[in-house]
Amino acid sequence: MPELTTIEQRVKEAVASCIHGGRLDEIRKDHHLVDDLGFDSLDITMLEMDLEERFSLRIADSDIRKMETVDHVIGYIMENMTNDPWQEVQ
Description:
The protein is mostly helical and about 90 residues long. Helix content is about 45%, strand content about 0%. Helix 1 packs antiparallel against helix 2 (about 40-55) and helix 1 crosses helix 4.
């Protein structure tokens, strides 16, 4: 049986994958994507595509650009998920 992974963990994994050499254990919910993590417009686009795939949802370009912190991303995902957030992740 697969291990249950939280939305927060999955979002942090997506964020870490967009940072060259980024480590998952160094990402905090209060990190600002641009100011703290150095995201540029390409990183934001990559994050958007990664999140859409991980969570099976569509994120408007205007919405992703409003998400300033990791916590904003987590909140957006929780509010807009169409799948059960407690489902097991394969």
